[in-house]
Amino acid sequence: MRVIALLLSAALLATGCSSGGGGIGDGGSGAAATRIKAEYDPRLDDKAQFGRLVIAHVNLGKPSRSYVAEHEERIDALVAARLKAAGYQLQPSSEFETAWREGVRKWGEPYNPTTGKLNLQALQYVLAEAVTWLAANTQAQGVVFTNLEEQQVYFSPTGNHNAYFAGVSRKPSTRGGEGITGDFNWIQGVDAVSINIKVLDLKLQQLFSGAGGIEVTETLDLKGSTPRWMRSKKILDNEDFIEEGINLALDPWIKPD
Q1: Which of 56, 130, 135, 204 could form an S-S bond across to 103 if both were Cys, CB 3.0 to 4.6 Å?
Q2: Residue 230 in contact with residue 216, Cβ under 8 Å?
Q3: Residue 2, pLDDT score
Q4: Which residues pair with 52 in a beta bridge?
Q5: Contact 166/211 with Cβ under 8 angstroms?
Q6: How far is CA 75 from the centre of its chain?
Q7: In this structure, are residues 76 and 222 in contact, taking their beta carbons and an 8 Å threshold?
Q8: CB of 237 within 8 A of CB of 186?
Q9: Residues pairing with 153 in the sheet
Q10: 19 Cβ contact list (under 8 Å, min separation 6)
Q11: 147: which residues sit within 8 A by CB, 6+ positions away?
């Protein structure tokens, strides 16, 4: 069943194993080389069939880490604005929340926060129950998932030390200290966040899948004798980065204004 492949793909992405992920590149071609090719069913353009969508409050797969999840509602609102501007009607998010609860009540919570494991079979059953409820009780015609997913990326050891991932180029940030020494080891994995947008119909068939990089969530701390990567004090606060990620994730379904 195709939905099984979808869920496996989502689970891998959520653990940072996404294809087209972080790579070391040089020049403008680096970001393009990491672009994740979208999967797009043109039927999604038919507003009669799929003009009424609802944005899910959960990830398709494992949930985001807490420091990323706290930004989900704000980024969902930006995605919703883009969908509305493109002529789609957004159903209240409470409809999917109720549908999801119905699925969890019957089949249990797919994700175990204690073990960090995702039960893919339970997720399939909960999703099936949720979309069945939506079809019977709402006017929704499709569900939009807006996963914020982390992955390991690498900064180039030469040149401007950019990192390239999911179609974007990002420079390293630093705090404290006097500068980076020439013998610093740049070949270290650091965390970065991308947005992965999927649209499923109410039979759990995929209509769209796209992704775009947003930002590196670690900064190089130069205060000590040995520079080290640490989580940035503020993340997902650069509106330009977020907009670029959303633009990439929605392409070619919805183009920027």
Answers
A1: 130
A2: no
A3: 55
A4: 89
A5: yes
A6: 10
A7: no
A8: no
A9: 190
A10: 36
A11: 10, 13, 14, 59, 60, 61, 64, 195, 196, 197, 198
Cα–Cα dist 41/2, whole Å: 14
Strand order in the sheet with 142-153: 39-40, 206-216, 190-201, 142-153, 52-55, 89-90
∠ CA 187-214-223 to the nearest 5 degrees? Answer: 50
> pLDDT of 204-246, one tens digit each?
999 999 999 999 999 999 987 789 999 999 999 999 999 999 9
Q: Tell me: the pLDDT tens digits for 106-118?
A: 999 999 999 999 9
For β-strands 142-153 and 163-165, DSSP reports them as unpaired
Please work out, in degrees rounded to the nearest 5, the angle formed at the alpha carbon of residue 247 by the alpha carbons of 208 and 141: 35
Round to whole Å and give the CA distance between 207 and 182.
48
Q: Which amino acid is at 89?
A: Q
Q: Which residues pair with 218 in a beta bridge?
A: 231
Tokens 């979808």 label which residue? 6
Say if residues 113 and 64 touch (Cβ distance below 8 Å): no
Mean pLDDT over 23-31 rounds to 57
Q: Among 170, 167, 176, which residue's Cα sits nearest to residue 156?
A: 170
Is residue 25 a contact partner of residue 34, using CB atoms and an 8 Å limit?
Answer: yes
Asked if residues 215 and 238 have their Cβ atoms less than 8 Å apart, the reply is: yes
Phi, psi for 125 (deg, rounded to 5): -65, -40
Q: Which residue has the tokens 């070391």?
A: 24
Q: How far apart, in whole angstroms, are the C-alpha atoms of residue 77 and residue 35?
A: 24
Residues 126-160 have pLDDT tens digits of: 999 999 999 999 999 999 999 999 999 999 998 88
The residue behind tokens 């409470």 is 94
DSSP assignment, residue 155?
A: B
